[in-house]
UniProtKB/TrEMBL annotation:
It is an enzyme of class 3 (hydrolase). Residues 6-207 form the Carboxyltransferase domain. GO terms for molecular function: 5-oxoprolinase (ATP-hydrolyzing) activity; ATP binding. Pfam families: CT_C_D. Its EC number is 3.5.2.9. The gene is pxpB. It comes from Flagellimonas allohymeniacidonis. This is 5-oxoprolinase subunit PxpB. Keywords: ATP-binding, Hydrolase, Nucleotide-binding.
Length: 244
């Protein structure tokens, strides 16, 4: 397994930040996930690990930490991890999206800016598998990398005060789904009827960093049906085990 130069620095009294090279690469993300798995297997209580694009925020919930001690533990753990430890459970989730203009409030303008037809935009957006590089901003908001260059577009010049839950957007080199109503500046091209985050569930967000997402275009009628199925708890998101 390739090793990367990592840096470790304090992040307040009860956390440290472990950083990898500042690049958006799936190999770096997999190395990060391999490290988090290896650290969790040490069985040290009190730690919460938050992986992202090229870093892991390590939060200690029990007391003020000894930085020098944990730094050495992290370095030892990183140097001793192996291929088996990196095989964290990962899934490909297939999520339905309705690109109807009622939901895709920016889809025509976005297509025009990208010099595509609306149909071509939808075809491009549903033709790729996206990697979950991070979850944040809002609980359950997935930062999805792997967007084709043909769909790269800057954020809107003027963010909206209200973006509807389930809105699917484009911004820069990323795509994503708003897990709840919120302000936002992404270019909205559709809506997903599946709730990505539900605080009432034991596992509020079913997606994890390192998983993959693919989008499937659905009609307005299918959207309405899946929305009802989700509300009554009978909709099952299709998933594929990537480690099988």
């Amino acid at each position: 397994m390739k090793k990367y130069p990592i840096t470790i620095k304090p992040f307040g009294e009860r956390a440290i930040l472990v950083e990898w090279p500042n690049q958006v690469e799936e190999s770096i993300l997999q190395d990060i996930l391999g490290f988090t798995t290896a650290f969790e297997e040490l069985g040290i209580s009190g730690w919460e690990l938050v992986p992202a694009y090229n870093s892991v925020t390590m939060i200690y919930n029990l007391a003020t930490l000894d930085f020098d001690q944990i730094k050495q533990t992290v370095l030892d753990c990183y140097s001793k991890r192996n291929e088996v430890e990196s095989q964290k459970e990962r899934f490909l989730w297939k999520l339905p999206v309705c690109y109807d203009k009622e939901f895709g409030i920016d889809i025509e303008e976005t297509a025009q800016k990208l010099e595509l037809s609306v149909e071509q935009l939808i075809q491009e957006h549903t033709s790729f598998e996206y990697t979950v590089f991070g979850i944040g901003f809002l609980p359950g908001f997935m930062y999805l990398g792997g967007l084709p260059k043909t769909l790269e577009l800057p954020r809107r010049d003027e963010p909206r005060l209200h973006v509807a839950k389930g809105s699917v957007g484009l911004a820069g080199k990323q795509t994503g789904i708003y897990p709840q109503d919120s302000p936002g500046g992404w270019n909205i091209i559709g809506n997903c009827p599946v709730s990505i985050f539900d605080a009432s569930k034991e596992e509020p967000c079913f997606v994890s960093v390192g998983d993959k997402i693919s989008f499937q275009a659905i009609s307005r009628a299918e959207y309405d049906l899946h929305k009802i199925e989700g509300e009554v708890g009978i909709y099952k998101v299709e998933k594929i085990d990537l480690n099988a």
